[in-house]
Write a structure and sequence with these properties.
By secondary structure, the chain is α/β, with parallel strands linked by helices. It is built from 13 helices and 20 strands.
Length: 443
Amino acid sequence: MLRGVRKREGWTKRELEEHQSSALRHLREYVYAHSPFYRKFHKGLFDAPMGELPVLTKTMLMENFDELVTDRSIRLEEVKRHVTIAKGGDRFLGRYWVTATSGSTGRPGLFLYNRTEWVTVLSSFARAYEWAGFRARLTRRRKMAMVASTSPWHMSSMVGATLRSSWMPALRLSASEPVEAVVERLNAWLPEILVAYPSVARILADEQCAGRLRICPEIVFTSAEVLTDETRRRVELAWGKQPFNQYAVTETGGLAAECGRHRGLHIFEDTVFTEIVDGDNRPVPPGAYGEKLLVTVLFNRTQPLIRYELSDSVRAAAGPCPCGLQYAFIDGIQGRKEEVLYFPSPKGGKVAVHPIVFHRLLDSVPVGGWQVVRDTEGLKILLCGAHEGFSDERLEEEVRRALSAQGAVMPPVKVVRVKAIPQTASGKAPLIKSNVALPGPPI
């Protein structure tokens, strides 16, 4: 699979577009022949351009699961039972790998892959490693450490279990473990490859600079959260090299990855078809952030995803990457639409404040970590590891000014010192969190 992937990386833009067109045609032909759901969902649109097809959400997928999948022996209730009683790595019906989302954006999702589809997922992660300069060789044993979710049904856990090998032994640690325990185990393991959520990589980089962590990874990978410029800087300060950022989701496997230029992420257009769109599903031009990303998975026939909605806000680069790869190029990821915070407007209605506003304001603050929390009482700025003499009042005023510049009625803003930034069940520490219901479209 990787040999085929490497050949496609040398394609021209025209060859890539021809491949996508052919793959989309064959995908839709198969889906209309084998999925009762899509026959109804796309009724009257079988020959329509992609941009005219309806958008599929996770809620719609899960509500129509049994009719959407193309193997009529698959039943959602049985898949749920399998996840409850089976061991991680056991295949559903003896032939399907099952992965699950954490449900951080609402309802959890379940996704199935047959053997060929799963190998494609594996190759997507291997491709990201190769772009970073790492290629597995039988002549050299290299140790890896991953600090992320340890749920057996998490995508990264399933990938790790499948690729387990004595040639690349892996230590898997939960991102929700105490920092002291993670540092102790990493010091004993001495990984040559470190994979972590950006929020965890930032903490570990600070531990390295403080002398408590003593590892020398050749490559650092980050994924699953927004990698801010400040976190990138701290990783480089700790280990002398920039991290390689990956963009992966349970629904597609690896979706995009950085090359050695560190200018952004190249989308794996030979395995996924993507559309950056606004709230009304209209294309957004390069250089502007979209409200969401629509993905069509070109290789999954078991559980087809056509114009499937991801709530990530990304920006296509205005120009090509100097590396020469012809894959579409993302030069900005500012978070999910669930991280957009809404505030009253002086003129009535609501004002949407996007994550990038807080990233720019808080990422350079001299603290170990931060989190913005919107609740019914106002806005809380959680800080951990603030330096001596740091002024909470000054930061509160800067946040108020930033919100006022966005046209928002200023809510109460309060800095709260915490020992550690709260994490989700999977160990992520989101930078922006809302505890109030999302409104409808802003007025």
